[in-house]
Amino acid sequence: MRDPAGYSYLSFLTDYGREDGFVAICHGQMLERAPAARIIDITHDVGPGDLRRGATVLAETLPELPPGVHVAVVDPGVGTERRGIVAHAGGHVLVGPDNGLLVWAAEALGGIGECHEIANPGLWRHPISRTFHGRDIFAPVGAWLAAGLDPAEVGPEIASSTLVRLEEPRRAVSGRIAGGEVRAIDRFGNCQLSLLREDLTGLGDTPPDSLRVHLPAGRWTVPFGTTFAEVDPGAPVLLVDSAGYVALAENGGNAARRFGLGVGDAVDIEPGDDAPAGD
């Protein structure tokens, strides 16, 4: 599993934001140990402690990146007994807390391979803070791995079956109803659902303009299109987003705000009628 030449870059995702120096401090720890590595900042705008959002962004982003070391820190359990882990998947190396953050991404890369618990304090920054393991543990370990460290030196190998997993989003097709939930909401207010296009094809020969969407706030008939611009400005549309999921969007607007949706809200879709949206 080891690449003795190391990796040319590290990616980095956190919920640290950019108002403080936390991200820059971690960059410094990385570059001190792997000075030749390039750092790709995926995002540091994950909501504080929002494991699902962090896991979703990682799972959608890492398959688009070349093999490298990926450090991710969304860690509401920092300082507790939760483990730190290194997981291999599809030629990539993922580093972070064992709280479910890394698992969806590892599976999107082809499945979880060799795993190690981060247990070698000789690789860490000292003294260790109980509130900043991104600086003291994950950034240094990720950098050492990028520089060619043998993963066996990180700590003991552990079974992937012991890793903490997040609850999978609801996704089921029963009869002519596709049942899902809001998987993620981006900065434009587009609501990515937990459903795939094939989940909608199971509803029967439904015209694209007659999908009935059941939301917590009511029922709407929404067109199924391929672009935002297929509907009038301000109108809603269902489409398949760049990650392959069905999304509820609004042309030029904010679907999450329009429909009062949040992550985890139930969304059921069935063949509808030609009534206008918003009845």
From TrEMBL:
SUPFAM superfamilies: Bacterial fluorinating enzyme, C-terminal domain, Bacterial fluorinating enzyme, N-terminal domain. Keywords: S-adenosyl-L-methionine. It holds the Pfam family SAM_HAT_N. Residues 11-155 form the S-adenosyl-l-methionine hydroxide adenosyltransferase N-terminal domain. It comes from the Bacteria. Belongs to the SAM hydrolase / SAM-dependent halogenase family. This is SAM-dependent chlorinase/fluorinase. It comes from Halostreptopolyspora alba.
